[in-house]
Amino acid sequence: MARLALISVSNKTGLLEFARKLVTEFEFDLISSGGTAKALKDAGIPVTKVSDYTGSPEILGGRVKTLHPRIHGGILARRDVPEDLADLAANEIHPFDLVVVNLYPFTQTVAAGATLAEAIEQIDIGGPAMIRAAAKNFAHLTVLCDPSNYAAYLEQLQRGEVSLEFRQSCALAAYTHTSSYDRAIADYLSSQSPTQFTITGQQLQPLRYGENPHQSAAWYQTGNTPTGWTSATKLQGKELSYNNLVDLEAARRIIAEFPDYPAAVILKHTNPCGAALGNNLTEAYTKAFQADSVSAFGGIVALNQPIDAATASELSKTFLECIIAPGCEPAAQEILAAKSNLRVLLLPDFNTGPKQTIKTIAGGFLMQAADDIATDPTLWQVVTERQPTETELAELLFAWKICKHVKSNAIVVTRDRTTAGVGAGQMNRVGSVKIALEQAGIKAENGFLASDGFFPFDDSVKTAAAAGITAIVQPGGSLRDADSIKAANELGILMLLTGVRHFLH
């Protein structure tokens, strides 16, 4: 009797070629349902529909297709248990040798903004049941839920036997698949009524160590589909470290703020040491580098356009840890290849960030929505007598977007849409102001200043004016806002209040 395969997949990548080889080279009979059966039939591949095999029609609009004893008996039967074989014979059930199933695209449906009702219909029932049953019975059959494993299975068949080791590894992958799927559903339903939240992930790779050599660490992927950094392409360089990945994520968040102009950001320890917009990518990077060339040494560079040869030549002039960009031209790749330890990663979409941030504390964890509120300068309040020009408003917007990503207390001084000074992580705002202005030096003259939180007193305004700052953007909300506004008017400084705070701890 021919070997029997049950195939029911949402992701049809590589399906037709795989199924055709099962039939023509290894004499499998195929049982399938719904869209999978249609795809196979349309391709001229012999297939029996599940409803014909079981004698039971699909019902409830397709909600019930494969939940039938002829299906699950064929999956779960133990071929070394006489009683199981007797049950198969009595019920005219043929045991399956292969189960190929992957699940409805629940994650993609939710990400596309589906309604609750639409999301519910993408909760697969029969698929997980078949996968879990087949994985449980890996001693007697193989379960495949990832198209990338099709070739390996065919190689096993060509050797004459599918090894127990291979079947067990596929079972582990199957349970990981269903676990991640259930987790995605639970997370979605929790977001509709957030009374509980759990996080799970599959380890991609162990890391050499964490923030320090004595701390163990590993990198995990959430969900079944690679997204974000798990979907990035590494063109060259050493393995990524824990600190690299933390810095890269900080770089991604900043560079995503600037989709409209060539932009470059250089980071150290998650804080930007240089950021700039330019007429082209080379100019943007050069300006960002010159903003603080000392701190840029050993930094992380994020670029919002594909790397060209001219920019690659500038990048290669100093020691850098990592570069990320949406692409890299062949000539640029050849130039960067000379720096063999330099990590170069391509991340086509900088905007696929997490919707929540999570921090662990003793006995639990804290979760908050990501700080991704849209920045709309038309909603800012001009509180001084002097009104902003379009050029001044654009510069303040640039400073504000950078300041959002600097550790609190945060002060950023800019000029010509380039950072001139950054005061980060100080215990008081006056200290951050002094650091940013001292770093800016003469560049503070006619410069612009952004503060992530309000000024509790007018001393920072006076200090900024003395250094030559001409415009300030800050959230406002202090009991002494009037004092800061009064000082700004007396000193001829433009001041805008955003009404939004961006603390980053």
Briefly characterize the structure:
The protein is of the alpha/beta class.
What features would you describe in this structure?
The chain is α/β, with parallel strands linked by helices and 505 residues long. It folds into 3 domains: 3-192, Methylglyoxal synthase-like domain (Rossmann fold); 229-346, AICAR transformylase, duplication domain (Cytidine Deaminase, domain 2, 3-Layer(aba) Sandwich), CATH 3.40.140; 377-497, AICAR transformylase, duplication domain (Cytidine Deaminase, domain 2, 3-Layer(aba) Sandwich), CATH 3.40.140. The chain has helices at 15-26, 34-42, 50-54, 69-76, 82-90, 106-111, 116-121, 126-136, 150-158, 164-192, 242-255, 281-291, 293-296, 309-315, 330-336, 390-403, 429-440, 459-467, 481-491, and strands at residues 3-8, 28-32, 48-49, 98-101, 142-144, 202-207, 217-221, 233-236, 263-268, 271-277, 299-303, 320-325, 343-346, 356-361, 364-369, 381-382, 411-414, 419-423, 448-451, 471-474, 494-497. The strands form 5 sheets. Strands 8-13-12-11-9-10 form a 6-stranded mixed sheet, sandwiched between helices. Strand 2, helix 2 (34-42) and strand 3 (48-49) form a beta-alpha-beta unit. Helix 12 packs parallel to helix 14 (309-315), helix 14 (309-315) runs parallel beside helix 15 (330-336) and helix 18 runs parallel beside helix 19 (481-491). The longest helix has 29 residues, at 164-192. The radius of gyration is 29 Å and the shape is elongated. The termini are far apart. The relative contact order is 0.06. The mean pLDDT is 89.
